[in-house]
Structures are given as structure tokens and as C-alpha cells.
Amino acid sequence: MREEATAFVPGHITGFFSAHPDDDPTKAGSRGAGLTLTDGVEVTVTRATREPTILFDGERVSIEPVETVLEVLEARARVEATSTLPIGSGFGVSGATALGTALAANQVFDRQLSYNELVTIAHGAEVEAGTGLGDVVAQAHGGVPIRLEPGAPAHNSLDAIPARARVEYVSFGELSTTEIITGDTDQLSAAGASALSLVVDEPTLSSFIYASRRFAREAELLTPDVRAALEAVAAVNGQASMAMLGNTVFALGRGLSEAGYEPTVCATHPAGAMLK
Amino acid sequence: MREEATAFVPGHITGFFSAHPDDDPTKAGSRGAGLTLTDGVEVTVTRATREPTILFDGERVSIEPVETVLEVLEARARVEATSTLPIGSGFGVSGATALGTALAANQVFDRQLSYNELVTIAHGAEVEAGTGLGDVVAQAHGGVPIRLEPGAPAHNSLDAIPARARVEYVSFGELSTTEIITGDTDQLSAAGASALSLVVDEPTLSSFIYASRRFAREAELLTPDVRAALEAVAAVNGQASMAMLGNTVFALGRGLSEAGYEPTVCATHPAGAMLK
Predict the structure, then answer these.
(1) What value of ipTM does the predicted structure carry?
(2) CATH number of the CATH domain containing B47
(3) Is the dihedral of CA A82, A88, A90, A95 positive or negative?
(4) Which residue of A101, A274, A276 is the best one to mutate when testing the B interface, meaning the one whose CB has the most B CBs within 10 A?
(5) Which residues contact A179 (CB under 8 A, 6 or more apart)?
(6) How many domains is chain A partitioned into structurally?
(7) pTM attached to this predicted model
(8) How far apart are CA A231 and CA A241, in angstroms?
(9) What does the pLDDT look like over B184-223, one tens digit per residue?
(10) Looking at chain A from residue 74 to 113, which residues have their Cβ under 8 Å from any Cβ of chain B?
(11) Chain B contacts of A274, Cβ < 8 Å?
(12) Are B114 and A159 within 8 A, CB to CB?
């Protein structure tokens, strides 16, 4: 039995989505599409001497889906997560931390679960906590995943846009995911369904960013900061949209820097979550 | 439209499999499990000035599934593949070249197909050529894939062993895949089904290598060179089995080098096929 294991999970920016609640958390989830990122969360799990603890960038925190994962795996663990991504800003940090914890704890505690089983545990924990609907399965896939059917691996169906890109992003602060995904999602989900059909018809990065921008407008989720940034990027003929759900703008290529912002720069991540 | 695109596709060693023929090549395939490898095939596609050409390590060759992929994509292309992997030795080189061609040609010729569609085209081409049954979908997935249900993405079901490993291999020459997978596969497929159930029960690398070795014995596929190498690795308490289908032995960790062989060394590849 190994005493320590580390996993890396890419960040995930959702461009558009429709919410699909279900009493069974392995069936609940979202349809949509997004970008997994080379910026992500690194999670190291070790055996805890006393009670389980979770540290994020060195600070003791409580992350409900991570706690659930540890309970399901019966793992009395110390979880140390580090990331350059901002929390609560639409990068799927809670999902990434939950999935990384599942992968690393499975190794340390020799739980002998399969990849899909670990993804299912992390997805279910995230859905139950109300912190996300589709990040975990996207982060398990990597690349530029299209979520055709919602839920954990036994129920979902994924495809992907076969492309890579430089990604820029600027975050203007937090936005509550729980409030939006547990509220009235009819208008949002109608916009998400129509965005998805655009991307299924033409699975390219340019149709993805177009569909994402249309979704953000139709779902009426634009914040003033985001709206200003999108207008600035459009003015220099750049490609940008809003991270769902965060007060964050992301651009393909150099849209934000050419518009005068000082974005963080990363790229799409070719692989899904992995042990290091 | 881009004039050139390059894809990398990991090699794939199948540890065990059962064959599932079907008149529809998107339903035909195999169940089983294997290792995708950091050693793989790099494929560069450019527009051809005259007729399509395929070069492998600089030599003009004919690879039927690659030609089929170019036809389906209506791509008059020059395909340049390079690899350190030996051909016809159980590394899925033909499947990797077909899948890499599909990904790169889609980009160069702006065909706007999705990842799954490109995998389906390469898988179908491989099945029709009789050169492989499960390599393409495994290579699209990456990691240590378990093929639970056969066929292209619309029909198959994959899981994975959540682990990474150093991999060593020694190849003793070619073995014809076509002859075995188009012949009487009843005994082989019964052995493959029982190996799969072992790995589904315990999705770990040690159960994978145990199930693979049992499969190789029960399916009566061991060549004299392979048998001698497996005995030598077992004598030093190493973990090895035979690549299906090739006259090749692979080991996890350092089994072959500790047994006195001079193996090629690589590792499991965390990601599936990707554009560079």
C-alpha cells in the first residue's frame, strides 16, 4: 500500500450548458461543452494520523464534495490541493479537487476501483453538494469535451472537438454556482440545448465560442465586467465568452491581451485527470 | 484552411481480448484490456499536389486502413508517419497511423468532424482491413483502457485502470494479426471473456498482467521466444505477458531488464490520440 499519491486534474471552463436534475446523482448532470485547461488542481493524498483534513493552497478548508469522496472511499486522509486557478469563478476547482482526491485516495488506500467508478463517486459528490453538474466528467475526459448526455459514465455520452488552443482568461471575482443551478433553469436550459445543437452540427472551436457567446446572452448571465470585456475583445476581432458559471471571461488565442487586458495564459489540456 | 497538421497517437499493447465480428464495422471490435504507450506514431498530413502518398519512417508504403481514412475524408493528402515502434508486432501501429491520419486530415481539409466521428472512421477502416479490432478505440482513450463493449464510440463502452507504469518491451519479429482474428476465435474469445471478468472485478495493474498471462496460455498463442522470456521474467519475480497479437513480450516495471534482456523502455501514456 502506497503512503502517498498525487493526481492532476485539469481546470474546466463550461461555455454553455443545460441542467438535468435527477434524484439519482449518477443520472443528474448537464449537457454542454467546454475547455479543459492546462491550469488545474494538483491533489496529494496521504494517510491522516487523526481526522481527515483538507488543505487548499496551504489553508485548511472545507470542500463538501471532497469530504463526501473521502467518506465513500472510507479514507482517513490528509488532502493537499494546490492550484493557480481562482475558486468560485467557473473553472471547476471543486470538481477537480474531488476527482483528484478520488484518484489519489484509491491508490493510497488500495481501494481497487476503476477509473469510471472514481469519476462516478466524484461526480455524484459534486452534484449532491450543488457545486457543479458537468465539470467532473469533462475533467475526466480532457481536451474540448462535448457533453451529449448528462450524468456519470454509466449514463452519460461524451464527444469532443478535435482541436487544441491557447486560452486566455481574466476573472472578476466569484459568482455562486449553487444559486443558479438550483434555481429556475428553464430559459438557461433552452439556450443551452440550442447552443449544443450548433456545436454538434459543426464541432469546431469557432462554432464553440460562437455558441457560448450566444448562450451567455440568451441565458441573461452576463455581468457588467464580463459584458465590457466581451465588447472589448469583439472590438479587436477576438474570440471570447463567459465561463459558466463564473464572473470570468475566457478567450481563444490572444483576444483578451489584444484588447488590453492582462490575462492569465494557458492552453487546452489534451488529457483527462491523471495520477502523477 | 491549414496546410499542415500533426497528430500523436500512443502505441497500444493488448493484454487479452475476445473478438466480436459484425457485418457493421462500427459494431465489430473486441473486448479486452491493454496499455497505451508513450511510444507511439506521429503523423503529419499535408495537401498532396498529385495523388495521395503514405510514408512510414521515410519509406513509401501502402497501409490499407490509412488509405481508407483518406478516401472517407476525401483528402488528397501526403501522410508522413514516424515511429520507433516495430510494425506487425502487437503495438497497434496500423491503427495509430489510421487514427493520426484522421485527426490531422480533418484539420488540414477542414472537414469539421467530431473526435468520435474520426475515431469511428479509423476504427471502421482498421476492422475492414483486418489489421485490428480494438487498438483504435483504446488509442483514442489513452491510459490503461478496459474495453467493456466492442465497436466504435456509438456502440462501445470503455473504462480504465486508474494507474500509470513504466513499461519495458522486447519484440522478436512479426506475427500476422489478420490470420488469427479472422480464423476460429472461439477458444481465444472464451479465454478473453474470463480474463476480462478478472480485471473488471479488480481493475489494477497486477490483476491486468495476471489475466493477460493466463489468457496467453489458454489461447495457446505463446511463441517459443515469448515463452522463454516470460519464464525468465517470472524467475526474477517480474510481471510480464505477451502483446496481443505480436511476437513481443512486455513487462511492467523492470521485469525484462532484470531478467537480462535489453528491452525498450517507455511508460503508459496518460492521454489518448491528440493533435500537436
Answers:
(1) 0.93
(2) 3.30.230.10
(3) positive
(4) A274
(5) none
(6) 1
(7) 0.95
(8) 10
(9) 778 888 999 999 999 999 999 999 999 999 999 998 888 8
(10) 103, 106-107, 112-113
(11) 143, 164, 270-271
(12) yes
